[in-house]
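Weekly puzzle thread! Below is a chain. First person to post its structure in token form gets bragging rights.
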Amino acid sequence: MALGTILTIAVYAIIIYVIFKVIRKIAKAFFYAGLLTLLILLVSGFFIVKDIMSFKENFTEQGRSLVILEENGNILTGYTMKPNPKFLTAGQISEYSDYLENKDYGKILEDKYKLMIVKLDLVSDLKTERISLGEVNLKKESMIAILKSSEAFELFNEALAEDNDILPETVFDARFKEDDLRLKAALLGTIVDEELLGAENAVNFFKQYKKGNLIIYPETALFKFVRLVPVEWIKSVVKNAFVKAKNGITGGISIKIEEAYSIIKDKV
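Winning reply:
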């Protein structure tokens, strides 16, 4: 009996020892895994914060980026942001369309900070039903039709009259009359200014990005991080990237009717 008791105690002791060793190894593994995870989070957090600061400075404060509008792989219009805002020419659009088809974003980007590709579906997805142009506005459906049209200026004038109850005899003359691409670029700039940029639009900006209605190239740490978590969880983070974004970010590309248009009311 005494021998049996000793053997029993020995077996229990061995089992306890083995369990202790296993638990110790598991705890050690968890400790190192936790330490590694913490290190990864700290390093990732550093790069995310750094990227937010870079994005805020180079994109939302200084511009230095290219914005293009595309539908089904076709570029409809585009412009470069300040400090040297310019409309894309027909030649540039043709060249960039070839690059876009092959997803060769680097050749479109060239020496700019970011390339922002806005898909036309984004306009359809906006919560607002009217887009402000200063003293007047356009219905979302009208804006989409104009951006897709090969006769944008004529359609634009018709939509302004219809959407704002302006007399049909009123004629809008503009610097864009002979260049539909410039008009479309100005309208795109208005959409970007009014609906995507600024702290109040930050959540919508990143939601559209996650939906695929916005493509940002290159996709740096901030954007990779946003892909992994719900935007609602990081509102303060994304808003911080856009604090000063609406201080004239498009560099005068966006349309304000009272600045760009003279209304001639004598044609009856």
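Puzzle host: Confirmed. Bonus trivia for everyone else. The first helix runs from residue 2 to 61.
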